[in-house]
Design brief:
Helices cover 38% and strands 18% of the residues. The chain is an alpha/beta fold.
């Protein structure tokens, strides 16, 4: 598990996704005890008389201790073990699903029993245990609703002669939808049958209420799929806002989920550890904005082009609650959308929305920060109507934001990847790795909403009250997560809550000229005054007449270099002269990322 510290060195995908491979799925399996028939998981779920696999006493999945927990091995469509899911009892006595962070899930399934002429597909482990015990058929556990179709299709290809029965269960979604739509689609896809646990919401509950005979009867009475009418009522015209995700069917362990989320993010973007903490917590915040007092804007900044801004926004669109990407939207449409649906607004290219010509848009964003003041008034048909502007909002752009928006934001900074950093572009696909994470996040948020609403973590003692307000909902989430996440949040808040000035430009050009300055001076350190003197040597360059026809100042140099995590320091020149300045070593990472042609 990655450890957060005060370093500003970006973490690459390799740093974080190593979580999965370092644990070693095969090693976990080798240490399992098989066919244990007296485990407390069995009695707690009414599964007496059955047996389970149990992890070793020193098992950890990421940050979570899983020793002597019930577990099921997860297999890929190619029948290779790719993950392990443990059912761990927390301090409240609730069993939570814990998976190896960063390991594959999409399209994979747990196996109970041996392949048979009839194979049953079901969403949850407990229902799978009951179905295999009662019928003797082989069972594939799909783990989450949106994986059922992928698993059914994989089984149909691997075992073309087998009859597939997809077993339903009423595992409620955020808006009260069962998994019947997913079950029906899967059965249609493979020409299979559907078994419904009539008289109970799930097959494991049916077993507890009526015994094995009732389970066998319902499987024997499986029917062909019928057209399933989606009764979900919160539909948006033109499907602009997607349906809420189906919840992960069981309680989910928060710290291991967050490890998986950070690992997934790090596969596609490069940031510091503090940035990843802020981004992961803000994603969870979008699912609990309804119980928050303030809604901080997530400001995603990159110093120059090609730093992964589009990938970051695409990732957010797949992970946040009710995503609503905007493109040249008018203010009139914006506050109506927010008032009616409270979506997560995703604004790319912030200069389009937040420049001089968009003061009204900026005002709407500012007003949506604090719930008690989050409204605008408009005259409609001779009457004043108030519209809510309170929702989650993320804005991505190059450079800075207007000071009023920046003051209400949690700002994270993207970095351009180095050649040795294995970061790939994210392309959204049906049932990709993001889908499983989204289901887990939605479930965790739903289970912990009341705790988050009542959480009152200690203040972080940031540099001003507005920054403390911005981090308030994220601290509440971090406290409820446990596993050291509140401390990580405090560290991230201190690192990221710095004052941001008005929109800046010229950072890349300044880096190039600073590199030339160090090369021409043949030194490893430069006083700020000396550096500015070298920069202003070219009278036709940008630095001799930077603002108001005056040379660039030390403060302006500092502001431009802030985007690259470079700050001046006290340096000794000679025996008794100490001046503010910069060391060449401070620029090595930035030079490598943003001006590689000059370092080759």
């Amino acid at each position: 598990m990655f450890e957060l510290n005060h370093s500003s060195t970006p973490l690459s995908a390799g740093d974080l996704t190593v979580i999965a491979t370092s644990i070693g799925v095969t090693d976990v399996i080798a240490d399992m005890s098989c066919n244990v028939d007296d485990h407390n998981y069995l009695s707690a779920h009414g599964l007496d008389g059955m047996s389970v696999n149990v992890l070793a006493n020193d098992a950890y999945f990421g940050p979570t201790q899983c020793d002597y927990s019930t577990a099921i091995v997860i297999y890929s469509p190619e029948k290779h073990p790719t993950n392990v899911m443990a059912m761990v009892r927390n301090v409240c006595g609730v069993y939570e699903d814990v998976l190896i962070p960063g390991a594959r899930l999409a399209g994979c399934y747990g196996r109970i029993g041996a392949p048979s002429a009839t194979i049953l597909v079901v969403e949850t482990f407990a229902a799978g245990m009951v179905l295999q015990h009662a019928t003797g058929f082989g069972v594939a556990v799909a783990l989450y609703a949106e994986n059922i179709g992928s698993v059914a299709l994989s089984l149909n290809r691997t075992y073309p002669e087998a009859s597939l029965v997809v077993c339903a269960g009423k595992h409620e979604g955020i808006e009260g939808r069962s998994n019947m739509r997913n079950v029906t689609a899967a059965a249609v896809l493979v020409g299979g049958l559907i078994a419904v646990p009539k008289g109970a919401p799930t097959f494991d509950e049916l077993y507890r209420l009526h015994g094995a005979a009732a389970v066998v009867e319902q499987v024997a009475n499986a029917t062909e799929p019928q057209d399933f009418a989606d009764t979900h009522t919160n539909q948006v015209a033109n499907r602009d806002i997607p349906d809420p995700p189906m919840l992960w069917p069981n309680a989910i362990n928060g710290p291991s989920m967050m490890s998986a989320l950070v690992a997934q993010l790090a596969r596609h973007i490069v940031m510091t550890a503090q940035d990843f903490v802020a981004l992961a917590l803000w994603i969870l915040f979008t699912y609990t904005v309804d119980v928050a007092r303030v809604s901080p804007v997530l400001a995603i900044r990159s110093p120059i082009k090609r730093c992964g801004k589009t990938s970051a926004m695409t990732l957010l669109a797949g992970l946040v609650a009710k995503p609503y990407p905007l493109s040249n939207i008018t203010t009139a449409v914006l506050f109506r959308v927010v008032d009616e649906y409270s979506p997560t607004l995703l604004l790319d290219e912030s200069d389009t929305y937040l420049g001089e010509s968009a003061k009204l848009m900026t005002g709407i964003l500012n007003s949506g920060h604090t719930r008690s003041h989050a409204h605008v008034a408009r005259m409609e048909q001779g009457k004043i109507r108030r519209f809510s502007t309170f929702s989650a909002k993320a804005i991505a752009g190059i450079g800075g934001m207007p000071s009023t928006v920046s003051d209400r934001s949690i700002t994270i900074n993207l970095r351009r990847k180095l050649p040795n950093e294995l970061v790939s572009k994210y392309v959204s696909l049906p049932n990709d790795a993001i889908v499983a994470l989204r289901a887990q996040i939605a479930r965790w948020a739903d289970d912990n909403r009341n705790r988050i609403a009542n959480a009152r973590p200690a203040p972080a003692n940031l540099d001003n009250d507005r920054h403390e307000d911005n981090w308030e909902p994220l601290f509440a989430i971090a406290e409820c997560l446990g596993g050291g996440w509140l401390e990580k949040a405090y560290q991230a808040a201190h690192a990221l809550s710095k004052s941001h000035d008005e929109i800046k430009c010229g950072g890349e050009e300044l880096l190039r000229d600073i590199q030339k300055a160090f090369n021409s001076a043949c030194t490893s350190k430069l006083a700020t005054s000396t550096l500015i003197g070298i920069l202003c040597t070219d009278r036709e360059g940008p630095w001799s007449s930077y603002a108001n026809a005056k040379p660039i100042t030390p403060r302006e140099v500092s502001n431009l270099l802030t985007d690259f995590n470079i700050v001046s320091k006290n340096l000794r020149f000679g025996t008794d002269v100490v001046l503010k300045g910069y060391e060449l070593a401070q620029f090595e990472d930035a030079f490598a990322r943003y001006i590689p042609k000059l370092t080759s």
